[in-house]
Amino acid sequence: MILETKHIEWIDGAKGIAIICVILLHCLPDQGKMFSYLHIGQSVPVFVFITAYLLTLHYKSIAEYYKKERIAKIMRTLLPPFFLIMVCEQVVSYIHFGELIGFKLLTFEGGCLGPGSYYLSIYLSIWFIMSFVIEFVRRIPIWASFLIMLIISVFAEYLFASIWQLSHMEAIYRLSIVRYLMVVWLGCAFVRFSKVENSIMLVTAILTGLVYSIIRYMMNVNPAISIVPDYWNSAHWYSVLYVFVPIMFLQKIKYNDTLKWIGQHSWLIFCFQMFVFWCVMIMYKY
What we know:
Layout: H1 9-25, H2 43-57, H3 62-65, H4 68-97, H5 103-109, H6 119-139, H7 142-162, H8 169-175, H9 181-189, H10 195-221, H11 244-250, H12 257-264, H13 266-285
Helix pairs in contact: 1-2, 1-12, 1-13, 2-6, 2-9, 4-13, 6-9, 7-9
């Protein structure tokens, strides 16, 4: 799910583990009881982090970033597998239901149906804003950029919460980059982190996971307690920094060629699992 041509060994391996976790996330039951946001639930935040990190690592200038050739390459990599899945879903829908999937449904599901179909929207949003985030992080102190991005994330999150009851708002939130803004900042800032800043962020991430776990446990024990939203549990401003914990761990692993190959083909695997799980869901339901 990363489009850079220069492969970094730990990143290929990390993507391999992350895409396996995506598949597990979409098929294992009782994830809330397993506190999956502490392990396999971090798969998408890991992909978002790596995307931001690589785009920052290979960034040269705004003019270079938005070159037509670069945009065309991204579209050639991303869109053919995604549109193929869309066509296959239409064929299955017509065979199974006798009708095609409506454009309105596809629009609010992110173009395809099935687990993770929103991710293309997230990736393109990240890619579009990334040059501005990089310039922003480069021009001011790291922790100043952290506070500014945190304030933006908190404001955006509660803006969504205040209009949640409006029609289609849940679908719009699902397709929005809002909940991953802090991970985007983290992936961008990681390129500049010193050893001390790495340690500070790691401690912050561990504390974030600990506090959030206590809150989630309290909510599980007493459902009447409603301190944080009970949806997208690994992707709110108050929990996303935890992704730094698996990232630091994933850097240290020695990966075999199979995992690296899986990571290099993670976008194709991601699209295919979307289609397979969607087919399983409709056949099980009907």
